[in-house]
Design a protein that fits this description.
Elements: H1 7-15, E1 21-25, E2 28-32, H2 38-41, E3 43-45, H3 51-63, E4 70-73, H4 77-85, E5 88-100, H5 101-104, E6 114-117, H6 122-130, H7 135-143, E7 148-155, E8 158-168, E9 171-179, H8 188-202, E10 207-213, H9 217-225, E11 229-239
Parallel strand pairs: 9-10
Antiparallel strand pairs: 1-2, 2-3, 4-11, 5-10, 5-11, 6-7, 7-8, 8-9
Amino acid sequence: MTGRPDAALEDAFEATWPAAESVRCGGFLVGRGLGAGGRASSAHVCGPWASGDLDAAQAQHALWDQPPLFRAWDDDDHLIAALTDRGYRPHIPTLVMAAPVAALADRPLPPVTAFAVWPPLAIQRQIWAAGNINPARQAVMERVPQPKAALLGRIRDRAAGAGFVAVHGPVAMIHAVEVLPAFRRQGLAGWMMRQAAFWAQDLGATRIGLAVSRANSTAQAAYASLGFTVVGSYAYYGPV
């Protein structure tokens, strides 16, 4: 078990994938996701909390007509126990991984392999849509303040990968990485990560981070080969 990452990375984790709207309920910040998935639609701890704050957070979810959902770092035993007592159960266990920017910017990119642009091109939106990055998730990217970029990956003269990166303080966070099925396991995602690192380095970032499902061992191994290590872990908690 790892749990909460350091403050700079946690701040970047939250700031670079924001909810459409957030309401503070005591010690919880509740996000309104508008269909953008758990990260944007969950409640997470933002300060000292009491049992009544859980009730208030649940009520806010109900007001927005979205399922009650909490996000807890794996070392937050107090919150996990309280949610468990209420009948909540964990799902989508997730790792946060990070690497020094310099470790990914240690070699040049092959010509016309990866680019960082904003706003996203139509082909990037098509690649996202072909995976699980629906329009609601793409709308999250629009809400993120600059600096940010959409990553485009190319292989065999074909646009085949898309991703998103944003800088908050000294940390760049990568989200929404998608590679078309026919072009996976050929190293393209790695080159996109390196492009993100070059882009972030130019903006003064020193670390680069991302979140990956614990179930996705293939992606974890690929990131580890680039120098990423596990620095945090969490899960979502919802009613059975």
